[in-house]
Design a protein that fits this description.
The structure holds 2 protein chains of 2 kinds.
Chain A lengths: L2 H18 L2 H28 L8 E6 L9 H12 L11 E3 L8 H9 L4 H4 L2 E4 L3 H6 L10 E5 L8 H12 L8 E4 L5 E5 L11 H15 L2 H13 L3 H5 L5 H35 L21 H28 L3 H24 L4 H5 L3 H4 L3 H13 L1 H4 L8 H28 L6
Parallel strand pairs in A: 1-2, 1-3
Antiparallel strand pairs in A: 3-4, 4-6, 5-6
Helix pairs in contact in A: 1-11, 2-11, 3-7, 8-12, 8-13, 8-16, 9-12, 9-13, 11-12, 12-13, 12-16, 12-18, 16-18
Chain B lengths: L8 E13 L3 E12 L3 E5 L6 H9 L6 E8 L2 E4 L4 H7 E4 L11 H12 L4 H14 L15 H13 L5 E5 L7 H17 L3 E5 L3 H7 L2 E6 L2 E6 L1 H7 L5 H10 L5 H20 L1
Parallel strand pairs in B: 3-8, 3-9, 6-7, 7-8
Antiparallel strand pairs in B: 1-2, 1-4, 4-5, 9-10
Classes of the chains: A alpha/beta, B alpha/beta.
C-alpha cells in the first residue's frame, strides 16, 4: 500500500475513533435520526388520533350526477365507499351519515343557489357533488394533458365537519381501490374544495413525501455541524492542529482524510435515517384499526417505506450532508473555536435549508410553486436534493413540470448539480485550509 | 544512534531568511545561521522576537518571504522550498502550545503519529511506541485516555509523540513552559538523553536561562527578528562584558547592548577614535 494511502487511512481511523468517543457526534449521527423520526411519528399519531372524532350522526349530503359508462359508474362506487367508511373505527367519517337521496333530484344550478343562500345553506352542507363526466374523465385520466377528474366539496366555514376534515375523510375513501390515491388541493376559499386525481402515485406525494423531504433536509444539513466544528475548529481550539500540520503529510491529504471520515459518518447517518423512517412508518401504522381496508388515521402523512423510497431518501440525505460538510469545512476553518464554528454554521445553513424545507412541506418543487422565479431557489443546493426525492418517487406527478423536459434528465441534472457543488465547496475548503493564518 | 535509514544529518544552514506578515510586520529579518550535527542550539528572545516563526519556517508550516534554509543529509542539500516533506520525514516539532488528542489513550496518541510518518512498518511503530512509553515513564497509564492526565503527563506524551520516528532534528518550542517542576525536570532529562546519548540535533526555544545553561551548546538571541548574538554562553558573556547570560539578554533586548555586527563595527570605530585620541 502506498505511503500516502496509508497515511490517509491512519488519519481517517483516528478521526472516526475520536468521533466515536465524542458524545455529541454519536448523538447527532446515530441517535438523532432515529429519535427525530420516532418523535415525528409519535406526534403525527397523536394528531391523527385527536382528529378522528366526528359528531355522531352528522350528515354529509352527496349528489351523484355521474353518467358512468356501459360497464362502470365510479360515482356510485365513490358513494358506496363513503358509506362504508362511516362504519370503520378510526375513519374521519366514523359515525357520520351519508345521505345520497335527499337532493338526488336537484340540478347543479339549484344546488349552487341553495349553497349561496345564507338562510338555507346550512341545510344543504356539507355537500359532495360528483360531476356527470366523472367516470369518463376518470377513465381518460392523463396528467400531462390536464385531463383530471374532479369531485366538488362544499362545507360551512366553522361547521362541525370542517373542510379539512371532510377532505381527509374523502381522501381516505379515494386512497382505496379503485380510486388509487390522491392529492387534495384546496381552491381559493374554504367553503369549496376540490379533489383531483393526479394519477396512480401515492397520496404521500402531497403530504407524506413533502414532510419527509422537509425533515430529511433539515436533519441532513444540521447533523454534520458537530463533526465539522470539532474536526477543524476544534483542532485549532485544542492546539492539536500545528503538530498535525508539521507531519510529513500534505494539507490536502489531511483535508481529504477528514472529508473521508465525514463521508463514513454521513453514510452511517443516512442508514440511521432509513431505519428511523421505517420506525416513523411503523408508529403511524399503529393507528391502523385492522382489516384489509382499514383506514389509517394518519395516512395523509404516512409513507410506504418501499426500497425505492428508502434508497432515494438515503441518497439524498447523503448528498445533502456531503454538501453541508463541504461548506461547513470552510466555515470551521475560518473560526478558532468549536462554539463559534457551530454558531456560524447554523447561521449560514439554517435559513436556506428552512426555505427549501418549507417548499417541500407544501408538497411542491420550486418551479411548481414559483414558476420561473422558482428556478432561483435551485441556487440553494438542497433544492436539488428535494427535487431528486420528489421526482424520483413520483415521476408521473412531476412530469409536467420537468425543467429539462423529461424526469430522467431532470434527475441527472439535479444529481450533477449536487456533485458539482460538492467539488466546488471542497475546493474552496482546501484553499481556506491552506492559509498560513490557520495556525494563528 | 544518529538516525534510521539512509539519512545522516550533517548540518542545518539558514541563509538570509526573512519573513514578513503583511507589509509592515517583519517577523524575521535577514537571518543567517549554521547549526552543526549533534548540537543543542538554544534560541532566546523576548515575546514576538521571531523564535516560533523561525521554527515554523524551518519545518515548513509557513513560507519565507525571502531567503532559504537547507539541511544537509549524506552530502546532499534539502531545501525548505522544494524538499519540505523529505525534511519533515527526518525532523519533528513540538510546538509551544501543542496538545494531545484527549479522546485517545497515550499509546494511541503515539501510535497515530508513528503511522502518519509512514517510514516505519506497523510492527516497528508498535515497538517504538512501547520503548517511548518506558522512556517517558508512563508505563501503567498507557491505555488511559489522555484527558485524565495532568499537564506534565500530557507533555511527556507530546515529547514521545515527537520522537516516535526517531528524528535527527528536533524543534522544541518552549518544551517546559506551563508544566510543573517535576515535569520540567523529566522533559529536560529526556532532552539531555537525546542530545548526549542519541546525538540528536536540537533547536530549542525557551525563556528559562537556567535551562539554556543546562542544555545548550550554543545560544542565539533574537531581537525584533534579527539575530543579535550567537555563541556559547561563556563567549557571549565575554563579548558583551556581562556577568551572566541574563545580563547579556537584558542588555540586548532593552537596547543597552547592540547587535553583534554593529557592536563589532562600533568596537572598531572606538579603537580608531581612541587611537587618534592617544596620538593627540
Amino acid at each position: 500500500m502506498s505511503n500516502r494511502i496509508k497515511q490517509t487511512l491512519s488519519l481517517v481511523k483516528q478521526e472516526l475513533r475520536s468521533a466515536s468517543r465524542t458524545r455529541y457526534i454519536v448523538i447527532s449521527f446515530i441517535l438523532m435520526p432515529i429519535l427525530m423520526w420516532g418523535m415525528q411519528g409519535g406526534i403525527q399519531l397523536l394528531v391523527g388520533v385527536s382528529l378522528t372524532s366526528t359528531q355522531e350522526g352528522e350528515t354529509v349530503y352527496v349528489v351523484n350526477f355521474d353518467l358512468g359508462n356501459i360497464t362502470d359508474n365510479y360515482g356510485d362506487k365513490f358513494v358506496n365507499k363513503l358509506k362504508a367508511s362511516t362504519e370503520i373505527n378510526g375513519s374521519f367519517l366514523e359515525g357520520a351519515v351519508i345521505n345520497d337521496t335527499l337532493y338526488a333530484d336537484e340540478s347543479y344550478s339549484s344546488l349552487m343557489q341553495m349553497i349561496n343562500d345564507p338562510d338555507i345553506a346550512s341545510d344543504v352542507m356539507p355537500l359532495i357533488i360528483i360531476p356527470e363526466n366523472f367516470t369518463s374523465v376518470f377513465n381518460a385520466f392523463n396528467l400531462s394533458l390536464n385531463i383530471i377528474p374532479v369531485v366538488e366539496m362544499y362545507t360551512l366555514p366553522g361547521g362541525i365537519i370542517g373542510s379539512e376534515f371532510l377532505e381527509a375523510g374523502v381522501g381516505m375513501v379515494l386512497s382505496q381501490p379503485p380510486f388509487t390515491q390522491v392529492v387534495i388541493e384546496k381552491a381559493a376559499y374554504l367553503s369549496q374544495t376540490t379533489i383531483t386525481f393526479p394519477g396512480e402515485e401515492a397520496a404521500a406525494s402531497g403530504f407524506g413525501a413533502g414532510f419527509i423531504g422537509f425533515i430529511s433536509i433539515l436533519i441532513a444539513v444540521m447533523a454534520p455541524a458537530p463533526f465539522v466544528s470539532t474536526s477543524f475548529a476544534g483542532e485549532r481550539e485544542k492546539k492539536t492542529m500545528e503538530s498535525l500540520l508539521a507531519l510529513p503529510i500534505s494539507r490536502f491529504s489531511i483535508l481529504f482524510g477528514k472529508v473521508l471520515a465525514g463521508m463514513v459518518l454521513v453514510s452511517i447517518f443516512a442508514v440511521m435515517n432509513m431505519v428511523g423512517l421505517m420506525g416513523f412508518s411503523f408508529i403511524l401504522g399503529l393507528a391502523d384499526s385492522g382489516g384489509s381496508e382499514a383506514y389509517n388515521v394518519s395516512a395523509m402523512y404516512s409513507i410506504n417505506p418501499t426500497l425505492n423510497l428508502l434508497l432515494l431518501v438515503g441518497i439524498t440525505m447523503f448528498l445533502s450532508a456531503f454538501v453541508a460538510i463541504g461548506i461547513g469545512i470552510s466555515i470551521a476553518s475560518l473560526t478558532k473555536d468549536v462554539r463559534s464554528a457551530e454558531s456560524l454554521y447554523s447561521m449560514v445553513m439554517m435559513v436556506p435549508s428552512l426555505i427549501v424545507g418549507m417548499t417541500s412541506l407544501f408538497g411542491a418543487l420550486p418551479e411548481q410553486s414559483f414558476g420561473g422565479a422558482g428556478i432561483l431557489l435551485y441556487l440553494i443546493p438542497w433544492s436539488h436534493a428535494i427535487a431528486i426525492l420528489s421526482k424520483g418517487l413520483y415521476p408521473q406527478t412531476y412530469a409536467s413540470s420537468a425543467i429539462t423536459g423529461s424526469i430522467a434528465t431532470d434527475l441527472l441534472f439535479h444529481l450533477g448539480f449536487l456533485v458539482v457543488v460538492i467539488f466546488i465547496s471542497l475546493y474552496i475548503a482546501s484553499r481556506v485550509f491552506e492559509r498560513e493564518s490557520i495556525l494563528t | 544512534m544518529d538516525c534510521k535509514g539512509d539519512y545522516i544529518l550533517e548540518m542545518l544552514q539558514i541563509n538570509n531568511l526573512t519573513k514578513k506578515f503583511g507589509r509592515k510586520n517583519i517577523a524575521l529579518d535577514n537571518l543567517s545561521l549554521t547549526i552543526q550535527k549533534g548540537e543543542v542550539f538554544g534560541l532566546l528572545g523576548p515575546n514576538g522576537a521571531g523564535k516560533t516563526t523561525l521554527i515554523r519556517l524551518l519545518i515548513g508550516l509557513i513560507k519565507p518571504t525571502s531567503g532559504t534554509a537547507q539541511i544537509r543529509y549524506n552530502g546532499e542539500y534539502y531545501d525548505i522550498h522544494e524538499d519540505i516533506m523529505k525534511i519533515r520525514e527526518r525532523a519533528s516539532m513540538l510546538p509551544q502550545e501543542a496538545q494531545v488528542y484527549e479522546q485517545l489513550t497515550a499509546r494511541e496518541n503515539i501510535l497515530y503519529y508513528g503511522q502518519i510518518y509512514g517510514n516505519m512498518t506497523d510492527e516497528e511503530v508498535r515497538n517504538r511506541t512501547e520503548e517511548l512509553i518506558d522512556l517517558i515513564g508512563l508505563r501503567g497509564r498507557e491505555n488511559d485516555l489522555t484527558k485524565e492526565f495532568s499537564g506534565g503527563m500530557k507533555r511527556k506524551v507530546l515529547v514521545a509523540r515527537a520522537l516516535v520516528m526517531d528524528p535527527d532534528l528536533v524543534f522544541l518550542d518552549e518544551p517546559t513552559t506551563g508544566i510543573d517542576i517535576l515535569g520540567a525536570r523529566t522533559v529536560r532529562n529526556i532532552i539531555k538523553k537525546l542530545a548526549k546519548d542519541m546525538h540528536k540535533t536540537i533547536i530549542l526555544t525557551t525563556h528559562d536561562l537556567s535551562e539554556v545553561g543546562e542544555l545548550c551548546d550554543r545560544v542565539g538571541i533574537l531581537v525584533k527578528g534579527k539575530l543579535a548574538a550567537v555563541g556559547t554562553p561563556a563567549e557571549l558573556e565575554e563579548k558583551f562584558q556581562k556577568a551572566g547570560l541574563e545580563d547579556v539578554f537584558i542588555g540586548l533586548t532593552t537596547g543597552e547592548g547592540v547587535i553583534e555586527e554593529d557592536f563589532l563595527k562600533q568596537k572598531k570605530k572606538r579603537s580608531l577614535f581612541s587611537r587618534i585620541l592617544k596620538r593627540r
